[in-house]
Amino acid sequence: MTRILAVDWDLREARCVLASATREKVAILLAASIPLVDVAEGGGDSHPDVSGSLRAALADRRVGRGATVVGVNRASVELMNFTLPPAKDPELAQLVLNQALRESQTLDEAAALDFFAMSDNPREPRPVTAAVLSPEQRQRIEETCAGAGLKPTRIVLRPLAAASLFARTASPADRACLLVHLVADEADLTVLAEGRVAFLRTVRLPEDAGEAVAAQRLSAEITRTLVVAQQGPLGGGTVERVFVYAGPDENQALLDQLSADLSIPVSSLDPFQGMEAAGVELPGNPGRFASLLGMVLDEAHGAHAIDFLHPRRPPRPPNWRHHLLAAAAAVALVACTGGYLYRDALQEEDANNAALSDELKRCREALTRQAGQRDLARAIRQWDAGEVVWLDELRDLSRRFPPSRDAMILRMTLGPGRSGAANVEFSGLVRDSAIIDQLVRNLSDPSWRVRVKRVGMQPQGRDYAWGFEASIELMPREKDLYRDSPEGKP
């Protein structure tokens, strides 16, 4: 049996699960929550010592040479969602890379990019979620593990591991449900449709605010997530049930708050239920260990949704050097044996040489075209990056937008327009139709042309009763105007 160690940490504690596993059986050997000790080096500020705390906790445990799986939270990665054209699975890696290069401002060759598809049908458009782990984040994770005497075998995304545990063990009959996984001051909210991840986000909770206040804040965020999921990835469908990872008497304030605020069933789910853990002292906060148990099961079955150490990559390009060497070898063979052939044989070999020369020419032309396409794509990206100062435009938009209690944006698309202008297409919800008129007045000025395309009431709206679609045409303006105007107006 293989030993599997799953670890993750935050600013207050580290958590680990050690298991002995095969594909058919998983036995829990250790499940521990480790408070972090603050240290100060060289007279500097103190910081949590994750490496030392893990090393001390695992010193008397025979971890062995098994797999070490490290979970990272949502804030440590850049997450992108997009829909690709119909394509087979081997083709997705190249399509994802091309799209990620267009949408990400931080992706480079040293970053780790991995993804998972939300549908398996290659004849339909393929919705995809891609995640990018920066080289700096990966280096920090590896240095922390090295200080604890560990070497990561895999680095995975924490919310997906918790969702995998749910899909492997819970198997609910609901077509769509929301999974809530609380870890310290964060809560992973994952919408699953027919057992697959359809939408995920992580909410940061206020520190030291008290259990009741945190429950009220998280309940409001869950309500917002249900509205966004219904309008977006579920395509008008509804979430039928909410599951909260929690042990006995854990997260009770949140369960009571959700039961009072939501009109759908709310259930708690103990992640250790059904696990073989005979003789093991389980932690007092088992709900926080859902993602670690998901990592263990995924590693035992050899299937992780996202693995930053072994990301899915495009297939390697053809080895043109091999073709060139083969062509050169054929020419040399003809030259060495030509003296022993009759005249007709020599003519036949000359024809073969001509064919090989044509193939070599085609190979070189293909390489030249590929280099030109790369240069063109690079030039387009540079031109697009310098066309509009999007951060300043978005800052201006956020300052003029009504407060969140009155309006909420569901979807926004940014792109170029005509004559050097740019377009912003967005849709959202508002509490009252009069707020739409206020929004148009706030946004309109000589540089912005606002047009409302559609306004309508929402059939199941509660806090936001009206929906709308609008567009803004951004006229060109000098970049110095952004710096000169603290209010974001030219």
Brief digest:
By secondary structure, the chain is an alpha+beta fold.
Any key phrases for this structure?
490 residues; alpha+beta; Gyrase A, domain 2; 3 domains; 37% helix
Describe the structure.
This protein has helices at residues 50-57, 89-103, 135-147, 158-169, 211-231, 252-261, 290-301, 320-337, 343-387, 390-400, 434-443, 480-484; strands at 2-9, 13-21, 26-35, 37-39, 47-49, 67-72, 78-84, 112-117, 126-133, 154-157, 176-183, 186-193, 196-204, 241-245, 266-269, 407-416, 422-430, 448-457, 466-474. It is globular and about 95 Å long. Helix 5 packs across helix 6 (252-261) and helix 8 (320-337) runs antiparallel to helix 9. With 490 residues, it is α+β, with helices and mostly antiparallel strands. Helix content is 37%, strand content 28%. The protein folds into three domains: 2-301, Nucleotidyltransferase, domain 5; 320-386, no CATH class; 390-484, 2-Layer Sandwich (Gyrase A, domain 2). The chain has a five-stranded mixed beta sheet. Strands 13-12-11-14-15 form a five-stranded mixed beta sheet, sandwiched between helices.
